[in-house]
Structure formats: C-alpha cells, structure tokens
TrEMBL record:
Protein name stated in the entry: Succinylglutamate desuccinylase/aspartoacylase family protein
The species this protein was found in: Prosthecobacter fluviatilis
One Pfam family it belongs to: AstE_AspA_cat
Domain Succinylglutamate desuccinylase/Aspartoacylase catalytic: residue ranges: 55-165
Cofactors (names): Zn(2+)
Keywords, comma-separated and alphabetical: Hydrolase, Metal-binding, Zinc
Top-rank taxon, per record: Bacteria
Length: 258
C-alpha cells in the first residue's frame, strides 16, 4: 500500500486551487521535554459561484485507528482539487484527521485516553472536542458525514440522524458501496436495531450538529468493515460519499415542486 499521508499533508502552500486550507491549533504535547504542536487540518472546496452552495462537512479519523476514512477524505480532497462538475454547487469542508494524537499512536482513543466520539455536547474539556464543537456551531452545516470503520462488522452500514432526508440518502449510498463490499444486513448491528444496514439510533456523545440548530442538518455515519482490504474500504467510502452528495442535490432540485 502507498505511504499514508501525514495529518499535515494538505496544510502547506502546495494545495491545488480552488481548495483553501486552514490549520488550527489544538493543543501542545510535552514530548522529550520539547513541545510538539498538534493540529486538526481543515480543507475547504468552494462552490463555483461564491456565496452559493450546499454546505457539507466530512469528518474522518475521530478514532485514530480507523484509517480508511482518513485515506478516503484525502482522496476526496484530491477529487475536489480537480474542480469536478459534481461539486460546482457545494461548499465542502473536509476534516481528514480529527484525532491526530490517536492516529499518531494508532489507537482508537486520543492521547489523553478518551474516546472522542462519546464526548460531544457534554461540556467536554478535551481540546479536540472544543475545537470541533466550535466549528459545528459556527458553520451551521446543511449536512454532516462522519467516516468510520468497525472491526466487528462484516459489511458496510450506517447511522442516520437529524433531517429526515438522512435515511433517504444513506439507502442509495449503501447500495453504491455494496457493489464493492457487502452490506451488513444483520437485524442487530453494534447493539442497535438495524434495517438493511441502516441504524436510526446512536451513541450518546457522537459527533452531531449542535443541539437546537435552527435548520436541521442531515447526519450520516458511514461504516466500513475494518478487516476488509484497505483499498476496498476506501473505494466503498468514496462511492458512498459521492452518492450522498449527488442524491442530496437531486432531492433539493425536487423541493420547489413538492
């Protein structure tokens, strides 16, 4: 497999236009008596017409040992840099490495030993959570897609929340991904009731839109089976995300006639 890109691959001046990069300070770690800065990178792909576009965020790597989502996020950044027609009306914010300390140590938890995906909207003092919550509050995304892997699953599946459109988008996304990896059709997945790979509940503290956000964002968590070959996990994730974006645009075009 090719070398894994570092968390800061896309934070330099070499980012191809029309992407812009942001590099936000998260925390400092004492390491061998030398402070080491840790950043959560954020890449923004602007719509063709400035100020107009569906505003979506893609979060990956919140568990440091789930590399498929991070690699898929970097592939999405490369795709966006090519200015594909599929993104002409999207403002896409990509956070490819949400848990840089966990990724560095290849662990699920952050460097402080915390599962970051159980900390949201509970007054967490974890700096990664405080930063990401601030982003979610400020940006008010129309859609939030979180990318994960599950070592106990033998197929792709996902969680839905927020807008009622979430389930309508996850269903075709799973169909697209299932051409690459099988769909998990178990009636119970990860302890939750599931229907053809779709779970309508979730864990407390999962990454979601801010409670009380005026316009309900669609929320989708896409999961790949982590024991599957990495290239297939990445390909399935890309197929799912691109299907979600395409179908969302399609549903929005229908809205005025509903």
């Amino acid at each position: 497999m090719s070398a894994i890109p570092s968390a800061l691959t896309y934070t330099g001046d070499s980012i191809p236009r029309p992407l812009t990069r942001r590099r936000y300070f998260v925390l400092r770690e004492p390491a061998a008596e030398i402070e080491r800065s840790t950043f959560i990178p954020k890449i923004i792909s602007k719509p063709l017409n400035p100020g107009y576009g569906f505003k979506f965020a893609i979060f990956a790597g919140i568990h440091g040992d789930e590399e498929a989502g991070t690699l898929a996020a970097f592939d999405l950044i490369r795709w966006a840099s090519e200015q594909p027609v599929e993104l002409h009306d999207y403002e896409l914010h990509i956070y490819p490495v949400c848990n840089p300390t966990g990724r560095r140590s290849h662990t699920r938890h952050s460097g402080s030993g915390v599962d970051l995906n159980r900390q949201f909207w509970h007054e967490s003092t974890e700096p990664e959570i405080q930063y990401l919550e601030g982003e979610l509050r400020r940006e008010k995304y129309d859609g939030i897609i979180s990318l994960h892997s599950d070592s106990d699953s033998d197929g792709v599946y996902g969680f839905v929340g927020g807008s009622f459109l979430s389930e309508h988008l996850l269903k075709p996304a799973l169909q697209a991904a299932s051409k690459i990896l099988p769909r998990n059709d178990a009636h119970v997945i990860d302890g939750f009731l599931a229907d053809k790979g779709i779970i309508r509940e979730g864990y407390l503290g999962m990454l979601t839109a801010p409670p009380g956000q005026s316009a309900s964002a669609l929320e989708i968590v896409f999961e790949t089976p982590s024991l599957a070959p990495m290239p297939l996990q990445v390909a399935a994730t890309l197929a799912a995300v691109k299907t979600i974006l395409a179908r969302y645009r399609q549903l929005q075009s229908y809205a005025p006639n509903l």
